[in-house]
Design a protein that fits this description.
Layout lengths: L1 H9 L31 E7 L7 H8 L2 H4 L2 E7 L3 H9 L5 E4 L2 H8 L6 E8 L5 E4 L17 E3 L6 H12 L9 E3 L7 H6 L5 E4 L3 H7 L4 E5 H5 L5 E6 H6 L1 H20 L2 H8 L8 H13 L11 H13 L11 H4 L3 H7 L2
Parallel strand pairs: 1-2, 1-3, 6-7, 6-8
Antiparallel strand pairs: 3-10, 4-10, 5-8, 5-9
Length: 348
């Protein structure tokens, strides 16, 4: 959060060089879309906030050739954090980012002359699950159990961090007073830190949830998304200037994502796992399939790519509750969201 405020106060001077060229499990960061006519395709520089099955529709859109159908070649890298993804977007290192919607709010309230808008969303709520070192079922777990324990959370001010804290407070647990809340573990180091027994509880995205469960290292005991409810959690965004200058690219991107979202709703989980396995080379197919089943069961993926006003209102309630947004700094929905591309995609 401090990085974001500093970045927006000083414009592009706050740019942090990122390890975007590194992808989880040692994958190559640049994975082009499947284009039959590469010469005719437009290359779009794109950054995902982290590498996770949580973003399944995006990988399916590449694997099934939906971007290629729209004349788009995807040049993908992993930012490893919304702060880094925001820096990459505002300095032109990428054209489109997939990250938490809170970053658009921060940009709108910041000093950067370049603003950004969300134009499509793929996740309906938080995909993190709280995991315990002690084996127990989700029915057996009570939030009081984390009192006086060490909990490995997420970067302060980030969507994962804020939503986890919201879930804690909902059950009367103070993330600052009632536990040792660790928030400084880098995203790529989280699994290693857990295996090294740096915490009693931690939150993870898939496929880490399925892998750690299968190996007996951790057990999912609560869905953060189920506690928070439906709030658009991960969105595609681009700068206002890029959207203005490249409306066909934004529309094509949204069309591809919406087509993938519909495919994911009814796809066989093992088939889907095999199609995206090249982005998760060291993950077992069974873990990928388990990830897909779990996320579908909990209603993690959106069926509607449009971000509606209620979602942004609820998001800002959580930001205010988390102390990272002042009540008088709420931003107008139309300043951070454009719906014309998602609405048109739904009508095609």
């Amino acid at each position: 959060m401090q990085f974001l405020h500093g970045f927006f106060r000083s414009g592009v001077r706050g740019l942090v060089t990122t390890a975007g060229a590194v992808a989880v499990f040692g994958l190559s960061p640049c994975l082009p879309g499947l284009s039959k006519n590469a010469a005719a395709a437009t290359k779009v520089k794109y950054a995902e906030v982290v590498r996770s099955v949580f973003y399944l529709p995006k990988y399916i859109a590449i694997a099934n050739g939906y971007f290629a159908e729209q004349g788009i070649e995807v040049d993908m890298r992993t930012a490893w954090g919304g702060d880094k993804g925001t820096a990459m977007l505002l300095t032109g290192r990428v054209d489109i980012v997939l990250q938490g919607p809170e970053t658009a709010v921060y940009i709108e309230n910041g000093m950067s002359p370049e603003k950004a808008k969300m134009f499509a969303a793929i996740t309906a709520t938080d995909g993190l699950f709280l995991m315990s070192r002690k084996k127990m079922s989700m029915q057996q777990f009570k939030w009081d159990m984390i009192r006086n324990k060490t909990v490995m959370g997420w970067r302060p001010g980030s969507t994962p961090g804020l939503f986890l804290e919201y879930a804690m407070k909902k059950h009367g647990v103070s993330p600052k007073k009632d536990l040792n809340h660790v928030t400084n573990i880098a995203i790529p180091a989280r699994v290693g830190a857990w295996i090294a027994k740096k915490a009693d509880y931690s939150v993870f995205f898939e496929p880490d949830i399925s892998r750690l469960s299968r190996e007996g290292h951790a057990y999912p005991v609560a869905s953060v998304g189920a506690e928070v409810g439906k709030v658009d959690y991960t969105v595609f965004m681009a700068t206002d200037s890029y959207i203005k200058n490249n409306p066909k690219i934004i529309q094509g991107w949204t069309n591809a994502i919406y087509k993938a979202m519909k495919w994911v709703r009814t796809a066989d989980s093992t088939d889907a796992a095999k199609r995206v396995s090249k982005w998760f080379l060291k993950v077992k197919i069974e873990d990928l399939a388990s990830s897909i089943d779990r996320y579908r069961k909990f209603g993690i993926w959106k069926s509607d790519p449009t971000t509606h006003p209620k979602a942004i209102s609820s998001l800002q309630d959580i930001l205010i509750e988390g102390g990272v947004l002042k009540a008088n700094k709420r931003v107008a929905y139309e300043n951070v969201v454009t719906t014309r591309f998602s609405e048109k995609a739904k009508g095609m």
